[in-house]
Design goal:
alpha/beta; Rossmann fold; Dihydrodipicolinate Reductase, domain 2; eight-stranded mixed β-sheet; 12 helices; 16 strands; 34% helix; binds nicotinamide-adenine-dinucleotide
């Protein structure tokens, strides 16, 4: 294999970033861009200098394609990944893996049966402050971790939700936890121990025209008695305020702050000086002027190439991808039924489906 041949499906905000980065990676070639809207598909094909299509089936039928890169709305990721692997292709999905565990489990079952590779975009793991925090924790230098906190205080205004009809729907968006905050859940679980209980409260405060929550607070208990607490909202006044993670251990405290986990704001680690970090990538800026996470998609896509061409390890395992969905699903059950939910989910909790849940009543 001299190059990995990609098709990008969904040429919207993040699909454009994928095309942009794939175009620059030596080991990648974009063979086809697909968007259900003809104008976007054509734009994508022109930007990538390749053919375009409005029909996913043309992607699945094309023998030249090694990897299908799924950049469509969140509620479509799982089905499109399954269809791609069934068609004999590897799949990379934008986050989240799925909006419910049944779909996540079908992705895993399909991957095992077809033996194709599955990749999930979690680019924040590459942010320089996040990477040094993970290293210092793995080396045991922060001691025993007893608390992880995360605040995601972002703004998504009416124009953001009006712009695309999937946004703010239960079926395709899933809400501020699944779509905006799943990166932060992933990091909490990456840094923390095994989660055994989740308790959450959720509201729709400031966006009466959407079906999902725009505000929530989630507490996770880990098997060693340590805790994580995450507060998140897309209702922050006028603009993004913060996207942070703080870790408290018996030998150190570290806070990664800024709006997009981009600054090492506090570092007090026994016997370890604060590292001098290279500047991080800027955040993704999208149509409408709103900003998302730090843009490390080049590293995510390079990891796909390294795995397929050189047998390197995938940055995100399928088990980790599933666990993030499980914790977010548990949070929704907890918020709806107003009770703590134990993990792993079992019985009817496994079948809970946010896509079929009841819209959050607006407080406005
Ligand atoms: N990793 C990150 O930091 C990051 C940032 C932004 C978005 N995302 C994720 O990317 C996904 C897309 O978000 P977005 O903001 O780019 O949305 P978007 O609406 O801008 O783009 C989605 C595109 O998919 C196309 N599409 C929908 N159904 C299709 C189908 N059946 N076949 C082909 N194309 C189809 C739409 O026409 C649209 O162009 C979401 O799941 C979101 O969570 C991730």
């Amino acid at each position: 294999m001299d190059k990995v041949r990609f098709a990008v499906v969904g040429y919207g905000n993040i699909g454009r970033r994928h095309v942009y980065f794939l175009d620059q990676l030596e080991g990648a070639e974009i063979v086809l861009v697909c968007d259900k809207i003809e104008e976007k598909a054509r734009d994508g094909g022109e930007a990538a200098g390749c053919k375009w299509t409005t029909d996913l089936q043309n992607v699945l039928d094309d023998p030249k394609i090694d990897v299908v890169d799924i950049c469509t709305p969140s509620g479509m990721h799982a089905e499109m990944c399954i269809a791609s692997m069934e068609a004999g292709k590897h799949a990379i999905s934008e986050k989240p893996m799925a909006l419910n565990l049944s779909e996540a489990d079908r992705v895993i079952e399909t991957q095992k049966r077809t033996q194709k590779r599955y990749f999930l975009v979690k680019q924040n793991r590459y942010n320089p402050p996040v990477a040094v925090l993970k290293d210092v924790m793995d080396e045991g230098n922060i001691g025993d971790i007893f608390l992880i906190t995360s605040d995601v205080f972002w703004n998504r205004r009416r124009s953001y939700y009006d712009d695309e009809d999937w946004r703010g729907t239960l079926e395709f968006d899933g809400g501020a936890l699944f779509t905006q905050s799943s990166h932060f859940v992933d990091l909490i679980l990456w840094l923390g121990k095994r989660p055994v209980r989740v308790e959450a409260t959720m509201e729709n405060r400031e966006h009466p025209y959407i079906e999902t929550e725009d505000l929530g607070s989630m507490k996770i208990l880990f098997d060693d008695g340590s805790l994580a607490v995450m507060n998140y909202t897309t209702a922050t006044f006028q603009k993004n305020l913060e996207g942070s993670i703080t870790v408290l251990g018996t030998k150190g405290s570290v806070k990664i702050g800024g709006k997009y986990l981009n600054e090492l704001s506090e570092w007090n680690v026994d016997g370890v000086d604060k590292p001098d970090l290279p500047p991080g990538s800027p955040p993704n800026t999208y149509k409408g002027g709103y900003q998302g996470s730090m843009s490390n998609h080049d590293k995510v896509l390079q990891n796909v190439i390294d795995v397929l061409m050189d047998g390197k390890e995938a940055k995100v395992s399928m088990g980790e991808a599933r666990l993030t969905v499980e914790v977010m699903q548990a949070a929704h059950i907890s918020a709806l039924e107003r009770r703590p939910v134990d993990l792993p989910l079992t019985g009817s909790e496994l079948e809970f489906d946010i896509k079929k849940s009841i819209p959050f009543p607006s407080r406005k």
